[in-house]
Amino acid sequence: GPPPRLLSALSLLRHPRELDSEGLGRAATAAVREGLDDESWWKAFRERALELAPRLALHDAALVLNSMARVRRTDRKLVMALLPRISSHLVYLTSAHLAMLASAIAKSGVHDATFAAALTRELKARLMEFQTSMEITMIVNAMSKLRVTDEDLYRRFVSHIQNAMGHEVFHVRDLSVLVGALARVQCTDNVTMSRFADCAVATLPEATPMELARLMHAYMSVGCVLHDFFGVCAHYAKQRALTMDPGGLTNAAFAFGQCFEVADEAHYIYLRRIFRAIRKASVASLPLYLPREIV
What we know:
- The chain is mainly alpha-helical.
- 71% of the residues lie in helices and 0% in strands.
- It has helices spanning 4-11, 21-33, 39-52, 58-70, 76-88, 95-108, 113-126, 133-145, 151-164, 172-184, 190-201, 209-221, 227-243, 246-260, 265-284, 291-294.
- The radius of gyration is 21 Å and the shape is globular.
- The N and C termini lie far apart (56 Å).
């Protein structure tokens, strides 16, 4: 038969109300990949998903919710309609779909104690199934936002992550999210944070300003002072500032500005270096700024 990518792309040619559970999952994946930004299509898609919610296959539900989260069209009503079935059927999901679902539910802002408890039980039993850096990052970040409070589970994940780092390079893109999640639930210690910093250095040259800011914010929020690491982060942030457009500089100033809210005095020297570079780059490109970017 036709390849899966072609099948999912073809499903976009049909109106969402004509799609079944599987077709909805394929269409969701294709819509995100093709960058579909048609408001009426997404509205019809949401309505069809709500209609199918009682009988939507779980892996299709994972694709639907994850896709809606990725295009920032998360729907609380749909999440709440799906939660009872999801909570009682987590055992049937692969680790990838479980990470996807948990991440999408976390982004929806729905906090459900029954789901959090069911997810905790499932993860305690299946932690070792999460092998790739992407899956591990998604699930730990989701746990931290879904108010999972099991300290032992977080400690086991930290140990699992450190073992995984022995055979896979965790990109700074993932590490910035992971460290942020662990800082959010206060599951950190100096040895672990130093190990993660050492791992991050390998891909720091590829980090975006947002990733650098997220990483520095996480370390600063738990009072961690690693001078060499912060020095390297500041170096790459200054490099990025040289090539950023006004919109990028505005976003970077906001992101690094949030670091000041959690920083200790020992951190200020690195943030000041970054802001000097942002200020210098901003002055150089001042004629290109829109009024809202200056404000």
